[in-house]
Amino acid sequence: MQLYKNQDIKIYNSLSGKKEPFQTITDGYVGMYVCGPTVYSHVHLGNVRTFMSFDMVFRYLKHLGYKVRYVRNITDAGHLENDADAGEDKITKKARLEEIEPMEVVQRYTVDFHNILNLFNFLPPSIEPTATGHIIEQIELIKTIIDNGFAYEVNGSVYFDVHKYNETNNYGILSKRKLEDLIHNTRELDGQSDKKSPQDFALWKKAEPQHIMRWPSPWSDGFPGWHLECTAMSTKYLGDHFDIHGGGMDLKFPHHECEIAQNQAAKGQSPVNYWMHANMLELNGARMSKSTGNIINPTELLTGHNDIMSKAYSPSVIRFFMMQAGYRSVLDLTDAGLSASEKGFNRLLEAISELESLNASEKSTLDIESWKQKCYDAMNDDFNTPILIAHLFDAVKYINQIKEGSQSISATDLNTFKTTLHAFVFEVLGLTNTTEAAADTDKLTGAVNVLIKLRQEARANKNFALSDQIRDELAEAGIQLKDSRDGTSFSVN
Ligand SMILES: [Zn+2]
């Protein structure tokens, strides 16, 4: 679809602190990398929001006709507990607690992550590489950084030399930190570390004897530092310099700062044109945190099994709620907020279904083309979904006015109106029509009940061949009948 490619997008670039016109490196193509989850526990709702923001960006760019290669990694190599370069890694810790293999932890929570994202109607990324699948690339990268003089080996571990790097580059370019301030604010742990300076970060760590996840390397049997995998995987699939790098605000420092340093040190250039950071999700006005109990996970929110919300909320309502805030704003998750979003979302869906029964007139009294452009303008302005949604509610108002006869719409405009509204609600915002899904379930129940009745009649007439046939063929179609004293019920597999 080449149709909308001429839209002028502006993206807020964390690197410059400004909204900048979006220009791709290769015309019509976008390379986008987003830091994925560390798969050692259930995905955090805040991370769902971050990934949803980039799912929306991915969807909009695709909608405009760009060919997007979206790479989102899985961190499965187990980086260290406190993000310093010492201590136990998160995956191994979980494996020990649950008495399973580290790779079982990885498998369990990768599947869980995909299941949750599917519930929220995420598009799969184009490539989802794993850190453990790219150990060779990471080792090669370390060799290059050492050869270029920006890393050093001590006792089987390799560290990035931040001070050396800062002589010719700017460590702090993204996070706007100054190395002098970092030095001032770092407390040296009484000489426990092999590092030349506390700001240096590990590219490779020699594994302690009890460390399970380990690989051979020229320096030791060990494992890569956390920041390295993203440089290895982003450049492998998107090239040494690509369009967009995204992640949560909390990754800006040190993770993304270190990615820039590694790329400069290994490839001699900055990796990314546009750095995008999605903001945090709070709960009832406070930071979500396990220790204070102010926390809710996606499943608890969806099932209603929690002490925080008054009821369960559907994935589309939660998605709609999240899209009602800009991705760069802090969003406060509250029961009142979700409940208001639910009402709003239902109003939108009702209007969309009423759109189908609207009659076209000779002439339009509404300016549909300008409404449509306003929707694009909102998204072009750094993906401003709250403004887009305000325009979608204007559409709801228009639909009611056309229905009442106070406004009219031509056949051509009606067609544009339908196509645009559907595109933004379902394709770009990724919402699903829950009323349609409910209607489908009702139809299925109706059809199966007809068959159950026919089977009862066959049994009453002692035509057991037919009654068995109905049961067996339904089973083959994935519908199990269960007979009990109260009658027959069914379940769908
Ligand atoms: Zn990353």
From TrEMBL:
EC number: 6.1.1.16
Note describing how the cofactor binds: Binds 1 zinc ion per subunit.
SUPFAM superfamilies, per database record: Anticodon-binding domain of a subclass of class I aminoacyl-tRNA synthetases, Nucleotidylyl transferase
Motif ('HIGH' region): 37-47
KW Membrane (keyword) present: no
Motif ('KMSKS' region) on chain: 287-291
Catalysed conversion reaction: tRNA(Cys) + L-cysteine + ATP = L-cysteinyl-tRNA(Cys) + AMP + diphosphate
Binding residues annotated for ATP, in chain numbering: K290
Domain of life, per lineage: Bacteria
Cofactor(s) annotated in UniProt: Zn(2+)
Major localization class: cytoplasm
GO MF annotation list: ATP binding; cysteine-tRNA ligase activity; zinc ion binding
Binding of Zn(2+), residues: C35, C230, H255, E259
CDD domains the UniProt entry points to: CysRS_core
Cellular location(s): Cytoplasm
Domain Cysteinyl-tRNA synthetase class Ia DALR: 374-440
Classification via Pfam families: CysS_C (PF23493), DALR_2 (PF09190), tRNA-synt_1e (PF01406)
Annotated Gene Ontology cellular component terms: cytosol
Cited InterPro entries: Cys-tRNA-ligase, Cys-tRNA-synt_Ia_DALR, Cys-tRNA/MSH_ligase, CysS_C, Rossmann-like_a/b/a_fold, tRNA-synt_1_cat_dom, tRNAsynth_Ia_anticodon-bd
Quaternary structure (record): Monomer.
Similarity comment: Belongs to the class-I aminoacyl-tRNA synthetase family.
PANTHER family named in the record: CYSTEINE--TRNA LIGASE, CYTOPLASMIC, CYSTEINYL-TRNA SYNTHETASE
UniProt-recorded name of the protein: Cysteine--tRNA ligase
Gene: cysS
